[in-house]
Amino acid sequence: MRSLRRHPLLVPALLCALVVAVTRPADAEGESGDDSGLSAQVARLYEDASLAAQQYEAGRKEADAQRARAQRLEQLLARERQDIAVLHEDLGRIARTQYRQGGDLPYTAQLLLADSPEELMRGQRAVWQADLAVNNAVAKSRRAEARLATDEAKAASQWQALEKRSGELAEIKRTVAAKLDEARSALQGRADASVAAGSCRGSVRLDQPDAGSTRAWVAPVETYELSAGFGSGGERWAHRHTGQDFAVPIGTPVRAVGAGRVVKVSCGGAFGIEIVIRHEGGYYTQYAHLAAVTVDQGERVGPGQWIGQSGTTGNSTGPHLHFEVRLTPELGSGVDPVPWLAEHGVPL
Fold this sequence. Notes:
This protein is α+β, with helices and mostly antiparallel strands. The chain has helices spanning 10-23, 28-32, 35-100, 107-113, 117-197, 337-343, and strands at residues 225-226, 244-247, 253-255, 260-266, 273-279, 284-293, 300-301, 306-310, 321-326, 334-335. α1 runs antiparallel to α3 (35-100) and α3 (35-100) runs antiparallel to α5. 28% of the residues are buried.
């Protein structure tokens, strides 16, 4: 990656782009209460948050580089102050030497006190050299003091610009996060209402990611932390945990792990909103506790296709995706998803 130092207009341009992303209005569909509009708004805000995070990181790196430059300038200033102190000492020493050698005597007095013309010439030469040394020392000291003043002003300006830029980036990041939290809450609220009613609102349609480089098998979510694993015990389950949990925020796009056909889309019960997909080879995958679905029963899906958005519906104590691999479409036929995915080239 090229150094940002060579592109002084990069960070301001990115800040402008982020401001546009943060301040643009919600979709008209989202404002009217349509599920597709709300889901699309959450997906768009995830993109905005990702952009904000990337540009915040770019700005942080530029800020770090600028901070390093400012610190080097501070070190230079310290050396300049030391040099000026040495110059002042030299100037004082020269002045004292000149005084002791009679440099302050007028020319007539020196002429009367001299024993010979040669002594007078040597004395005049010494005085001239001393005067020259004093003048050079004074000029050098003044140049150093002027350079120090300029560098001190430059350092102060850099620190001020750094503080301002860091504040702008942090504010943009906070604004995107606040808008995303609000949209997540609305999405989850509608999902909870669907589960309580026992009927799904129907699929919503989102712009799909570029599938040009998608592998045959992928993880069900792109970025995650693994939480409860297959076979683990806990108060939430009557027996053992039947799948692998992926801790992700509400609204995170959920992907089909491989090609297949949707055999079940349902709402209600312990799994809340869930999707089950049948894959070639007879295996089934389940995606549960969703906040929204983007596919219909009977629809064919490809690997990496967004099939829903994560949530915390059903028997769930926090946002996550519950993912299962089954031998049948029904609960109780599950196998450990982690080694199954690993066999398909997807290590978690």
